[in-house]
Amino acid sequence: MFNNAEFLRNVRVQLTPRRLMFTSGLTLGLIIISELLIWTATAKTEYSPVGYDRWAEFGIASFNLLFFAQIILLTAMAPSVVGGSIVQERLRNTLVFQQMTLLSSHEVLLGKMFGSTIIYYVLAALIMPFAILGGLVARIPIDSLVGIYLVLLVGALSWQAVSLFISSSIVNAQEAAGRNLAGLSYSIGGLAVFFMMIFFNIFWRHNWEMQQGNTYFFGQPILALTFAVMVVSFIGVWAYIGAVRAFKDLQLIRLSPRTVWYFFIALEVILVGWFWGGTISSEGYADVSQEYFKRNIGALFVAYLFINWIFLAALAGISVISRNQLREWWSGSLDAISLLKRSEIKNSIINFPISIAIVLAGSIALWGSMYVGLPGRENLLLPFSSLIAMMIAFIVTMLSMASFIQFCAMYRFRVANRAGLVLWIMLMVIAAIATGVLGPESVPGLFNPMVFSVLLIEKSEKALSTISVGLLVEIIFALLSIGMMYWKWRRTRDEMLKDKD
Amino acid sequence: MIATFGLTKYYETISAVKNVDLFIGHSEICGLIGPNGAGKTTLLKMLAGLLLPTSGRIEIAGEEVGAEPKKLHSFVGYLPDNFGLYDELTVWQFLDYFANAQKVEHLSIPSRIEKVLDLTRLVSKRNALVGTLSRGMRQRVLVAKTLLSHPKVLLFDEPASGLDPLARRELCELIKMLGSMGQTIIVSSHILSELADFCTSVAIMEQGRLVRSGRINDIVETLATGINVIIEIIEDLAEFDRLAARLRELPVVQKLTLSNYKLSFTFLGTRSDLAQLHRDVVLSHPGIVSFYEKQLTVEDVFMAVSSHQTS
């Protein structure tokens, strides 16, 4: 890291001796003042309970305040600044240097991640001994303290990676709508603090005692905290990989299509492991009513499909074929660049069905896990025929979504490829509202594969008619979307070939 | 040194660069000329590996770029028109960052920085903050940064825009010096007088197409239909009219234009015929102040080959 030019440049800018001395002095001063105020405020009064321990009260109040300051520094300030450090390159016209640099994408991104935020890490490190001292005085267990700081560090790095990913993705946006997202990194900082506060509230209570609750991963008991950290790390790692890909794209470096597949495989591993066997523990098995158990399985299946739907929608939005790419598709040129672009178009087209296949493989594994995890309860589980119907509904909806987004991308929208995705989300929101008014077995309800799946799982009395009507509605919409896409595809082709002449 | 074959770039339905076949030899300083919107910046960005062409091939220093424009970044230096610098760093820190970023051998970085500071006459500014420098100085810092990695080709996009006359003069001198050191350079500009001084070849673009390219002398030769001559005379209208009438009678004198006691024409005879004409005219017209041959400038070349259209 200390040989990394990008890191050193950021350190030179961020950590000037004058700034370091001033901020360190100010921080130490504020710590001393706050400690004095807390010490005064925790003095024993006539209203204090019997056995009042002033030192313990002082310690916990001190730890709470100083740890909160560290959360702000590392999860609000650092992600905001790291995202801003990329957007700034565009705003001050230095992005061209980043595009032409011989540093690898990892060197640039890690340099920005740690270099631009170094002042916040230095200040957090300065606060840390005082906070730990407060924690020890308050008799917070050592393992709890280590856990808190580990989670803070993992959370901070993950949110920085998320901010880096979003900034790298929008930094070269040609459309005004994309560039205006420059302030987004600051919103990410706010969101990160909110998330981390909830996180700490769930896992540490009663004067920062660690909650030792268990969850299950692939049917095996695991500390809920460990699982939560695993999920946060998953988000951080993939956000960082996304940032590297966005940065490589900026430098016109060829991207491997396999990363998308690996992402979906990793996502399915996490989701299937989490929802494995219906997540009902064997100890609690006897207490769980059959009705609850049935609903639980339904909710998990729907949650599984819904989470995947979100990521597939994002993939459809990212890998949509633009008008420029279509021009290349029809150009027939045989030079290296044309061939590369055509192979990229092919990758975009292939990526989507492969990702759907990975999701479906995961859903079969999830379905199978419920039989493995709960022998003797098969009568409550989803029959294979229902699983097949759900999978068909899901595939049809994904195809209609991809076709609809592609149809929109062939128009000259101001927000370009994102228009289709936004319109699709709006369509789904309208359908959800209509479902609320007309009921789940109405046409707008069945249009949504999630509602359709819930009806199937709950074994509605009208199961057969639900399946047939639901599938029919979804197939009609898919055919409509594919038809519109094909029509626009032909028109665009004619326009471009005419223009070529 | 630089060759492009059928280079094309589309932005949606607009063709910014269309089917450009360009060849620039080693150590040449090529002026990329054209009106605003002619496609100069798009062409330079493709040569710098910042923009992927829609189709076509680029070959620089014998290296086929193909579908990996990143390859270009190790031996092409690009100086954009609208650039920013890291204002919070000193000139030395700025160059140190780029030397490391361009993977210059670690031990040779200090000496390399000193050398480029010397070349760009920035030695006295080595500890100055980049943000405090004038536009001309910043331009030189950018040149210094680009020279750190010994690029084989330098691409200047409208380098003189926004510079005052003195800074413009200094930049021209710097480009001339780089050219004399054997550097291959492309300088784009729509201000033709800027390029006249130092370009050895030109490439003229219009509406995304390359209208003409080659060494200036070769183009001048193909364009020249005679010798361009200018005669200046004292402010005597009668004398001026007599001389004009005499020249009009000569069949070897074409395209005679009169303005402000100055006669310009194209002489179609040989050089010894011109010497004879010079003798006769000077002897019979005592009011003549000067009689000289006008060489074609970059501007003349552009005016001759361009259809004067903008995108």
List the topology elements.
The complex is a heterodimer of chains A (501) and B (311).
Chain A lengths: L4 H10 L2 H25 L12 H38 L3 H6 L4 H11 L2 H20 L4 H29 L5 H4 L4 H20 E2 L3 E2 L3 E4 L2 E4 H27 L7 H18 L14 H29 L4 H9 L4 H38 L10 H26 L8 H21 L4 H4 L2 H9 L5 H38 L1
Antiparallel strand pairs in A: 1-2, 3-4
Helix pairs in contact in A: 1-5, 2-3, 2-6, 3-6, 3-7, 3-9, 7-9, 7-10, 11-12, 11-14, 12-14, 12-15, 12-18, 13-14, 13-19, 14-15, 15-16, 15-18, 15-19, 18-19
Chain B lengths: L1 E10 L2 E11 L4 E5 L6 H8 L7 E6 L2 E2 L11 E4 L11 H11 L7 H11 L15 H13 L5 E5 L7 H16 L3 E6 L2 H5 L4 E6 L2 E7 H8 L3 E7 L3 H13 L3 E7 L2 E6 L3 H14 L3 E6 L4 H8 L6
Parallel strand pairs in B: 3-8, 3-9, 6-7, 7-8
Antiparallel strand pairs in B: 1-2, 1-4, 4-5, 9-10, 11-13, 11-14, 12-13
Helix pairs in contact in B: 2-3, 2-4, 3-4, 4-5
Describe the model.
The complex is a heterodimer of chains A (501) and B (311). With 501 residues, chain A is an all-alpha fold. Chain A has 19 helices and four strands. Chain A has helices at residues 5-14, 17-41, 54-91, 95-100, 105-115, 118-137, 142-170, 176-179, 184-203, 224-250, 258-275, 290-318, 323-331, 336-373, 384-409, 418-438, 443-446, 449-457, 463-500, and strands spanning 204-205, 209-210, 214-217, 220-223. In chain A, a hairpin with a 2-residue loop joins strand 3 and strand 4. The mean pLDDT of chain A is 83. Chain B has 311 residues and is an alpha/beta fold. Chain B contains ten helices and 14 strands. Chain B has helices spanning 40-47, 91-101, 109-119, 135-147, 165-180, 192-196, 216-223, 237-249, 271-284, 298-305, and strands at 2-11, 14-24, 29-33, 55-60, 63-64, 76-79, 153-157, 184-189, 201-206, 209-215, 227-233, 253-259, 262-267, 288-293. In chain B, strands 6-7-8-3-9-10 form a six-stranded mixed sheet, sandwiched between helices. Chain B has a four-stranded antiparallel sheet with strand order 2-1-4-5, covered by helices on one side. A four-stranded antiparallel sheet of chain B has the order 12-13-11-14, covered by helices on one side. In chain B, strand 7 (153-157), helix 5 and strand 8 form a beta-alpha-beta unit. In chain B, helix 2 (91-101) crosses helix 3, helix 3 (109-119) packs across helix 4 and helix 4 runs parallel beside helix 5. The model of chain B has no long low-confidence stretch (mean pLDDT 84). Chains A and B meet through helix 1, helix 4, helix 13, helix 14 and helix 19 of A and strand 1, strand 4 and helix 2 of B.
